[in-house]
């Protein structure tokens, strides 16, 4: 339930918002049009800040700066270890400003401060440091050829990267693209989501302080169909790395196809299965289902929103789930007791509530939640549906909110079939003590990651990214570098020709 008695901001001092302009070529500038967009506080719907609304002209200026920094600047020409050193300095600065970054993130996206401080800032730092360490470990191969030729490959930075990111983990998403792009030696234009522009601008300021040369990181805040689309269709952008909805992913591929065939990497939606077998540790399974669905108020592409529970444990699982949800607190993200803050904005709030209504009219049963809560802002009760059929809309479409579908199954074969019966293929969770079942599930589920006896277990050293309509290309791990590197073969005869 929402706790409204804690006073303004739960007694927490709000962060000062210092950066609200576009960051182009190392300077904060107004949009060419002079327009601004409003970033709102999801707790109230009130305006937090007016931020420059970048458009096509601004994207053009940002790409020009990135192009210049790539073609003539030192970043792509520095050794990997030098780049790594600057990135470590950047990480130091982010760590030094961890509290401010966490507060900005909580304010802009409605996430519990205790979580942003640990998870969002922590993962951002891991990412930067992982790729700082990767920067001097990018190397090619020597080639053994069938003719009297010798050759090797170079892995060169591909050029200017367009990085379009969503609002659910603004800082983590920023670094999931920026860190590998920096390590590879690319220059870039980042477009944060219009709902959450504040952390990216703050991070651009810290990048400059760390000594990342002007023009290497540019940030254009603005809307998707204008600023985002201008990046995707720009003739001088060499790669677009995107995280967001499947619909927009499709638009980005289309824009690439219609313009310069830039490389595209897409991290899109999901409807991931979390499969709990009879022999699972019940407490652990319930905890994984709760966190796997309601962490970050369900605003995560990897939520395990289809929870399949084997029939032998089902009734006890359902009971315990309902009981444990009584301790789950929805409320002001600045209150340390709170587990779940408000949805990011009005549009998302309304969309999630529409799905909940769909679930009810389709005949699913509400076990917990099922309605909005709080006197103001975008709070929704964590909602669990039972009696869900695989073909109901709530079981098929990505809801991106605190809505869990609970379903019963009998056999391993059935679980595999139903888990894979989706257009998506992002993540999956399996909870069992039987190693054979775990292995079989891990190999049979078509997804980018299978978590066994854990969920949401992301790490900078572990490749992340989906299959099917969840997209392609990886974030995190050395694989994340691939999209920012072009492979070039160099070939020469073994015996020098005399002329
Ligand atoms: P969501 O539905 O979760 O808001 P979106 O896919 O709409 O996710 O947004 C993710 C990012 O893509 C945001 O930065 C958004 O501004 C951007 N975006 C939205 N539409 C387009 C578009 N047509 N072209 C490029 N980027 C877009």
TrEMBL record:
Q: Which SUPFAM superfamilies match?
A: ALDH-like
Q: Which residues form the Aldehyde dehydrogenase domain?
A: 29-490
- Entry's Gene3D superfamilies? Aldehyde Dehydrogenase, Chain A, domain 1 (3.40.605.10), Aldehyde Dehydrogenase, Chain A, domain 2 (3.40.309.10)
InterPro entries registered for this protein in UniProt: Ald_DH/histidinol_DH, Ald_DH_C, Ald_DH_CS_GLU, Ald_DH_N, Aldehyde_DH_dom
Does the entry feature the keyword Lipoprotein, yes or no? no
Active site as annotated: 267
Q: This protein's superkingdom?
A: Eukaryota
The similarity annotation says: Belongs to the aldehyde dehydrogenase family.
Name of the protein this chain belongs to = Aldehyde dehydrogenase 1
């Amino acid at each position: 339930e929402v706790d409204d008695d804690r006073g303004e901001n739960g007694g927490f001092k709000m962060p000062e918002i210092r950066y609200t302009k576009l960051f182009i070529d190392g300077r904060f500038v107004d949009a060419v049009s002079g327009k601004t967009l409003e970033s709102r506080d999801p707790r109230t719907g009130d305006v937090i800040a007016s931020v420059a609304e970048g458009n096509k002209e601004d994207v053009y200026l940002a790409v020009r700066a990135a192009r210049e920094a790539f073609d003539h600047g030192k970043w792509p020409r520095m050794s990997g270890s030098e780049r790594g050193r600057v990135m470590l300095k950047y990480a130091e600065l982010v760590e030094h400003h961890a509290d401010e970054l966490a507060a900005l993130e909580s304010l802009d996206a409605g996430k519990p401060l205790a979580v942003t401080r640990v998870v969002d800032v922590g993962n951002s730092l891991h990412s930067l440091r992982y790729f700082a360490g990767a920067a001097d470990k990018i190397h090619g191969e020597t080639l053994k050829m069938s003719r009297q030729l010798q050759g090797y490959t170079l892995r060169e930075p591909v050029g200017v990267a367009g990085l379009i990111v969503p609002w659910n983990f603004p800082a983590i998403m920023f670094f999931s693209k920026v860190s590998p792009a920096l390590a590879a030696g690319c220059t870039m234009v980042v477009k944060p989501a219009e709902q959450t522009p504040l952390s990216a601008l703050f991070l651009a300021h810290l990048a400059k302080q760390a000594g990342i040369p002007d023009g290497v990181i540019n940030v254009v805040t603005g809307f998707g169909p204008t600023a985002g689309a201008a990046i995707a269709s720009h003739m001088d952008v060499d790669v677009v790395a995107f995280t967001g909805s499947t619909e927009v992913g499709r638009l980005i591929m289309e824009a690439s196809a219609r313009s310069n065939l830039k490389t595209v990497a897409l991290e899109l939606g999901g409807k991931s299965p979390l499969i709990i077998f009879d022999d699972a540790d019940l407490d652990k399974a319930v905890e994984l289902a709760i966190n796997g669905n309601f962490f970050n108020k369900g605003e995560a592409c990897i939520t395990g929103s289809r929870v399949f529970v084997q029939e032998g444990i089902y009734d006890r699982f359902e009971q315990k789930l309902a009981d444990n949800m009584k301790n789950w607190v929805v409320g002001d993200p600045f209150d340390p007791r709170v587990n779940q803050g408000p949805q990011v904005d009005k549009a998302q709030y309304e969309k999630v509530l529409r799905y909940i209504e769909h679930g009810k009219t389709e005949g699913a049963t509400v076990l917990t939640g099922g309605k909005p809560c709080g006197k103001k802002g975008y709070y929704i009760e964590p909602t669990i549906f039972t009696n869900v059929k695989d073909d109901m809309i709530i079981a098929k479409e990505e809801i991106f909110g605190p809505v869990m579908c609970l379903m019963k199954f009998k056999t391993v074969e059935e679980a595999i079939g139903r888990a894979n019966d989706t257009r998506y293929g992002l993540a999956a969770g399996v909870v069992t003590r039987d190693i054979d079942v775990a292995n079989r599930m891990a190999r049979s589920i078509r997804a980018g990651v299978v978590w066994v006896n854990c969920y949401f277990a992301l790490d900078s050293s572990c490749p992340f990214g989906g299959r099917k309509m969840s997209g392609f290309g990886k974030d995190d791990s050395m694989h994340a570098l691939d999209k920012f590197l072009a492979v070039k073969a160099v070939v020469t005869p073994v015996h020098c020709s005399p002329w």
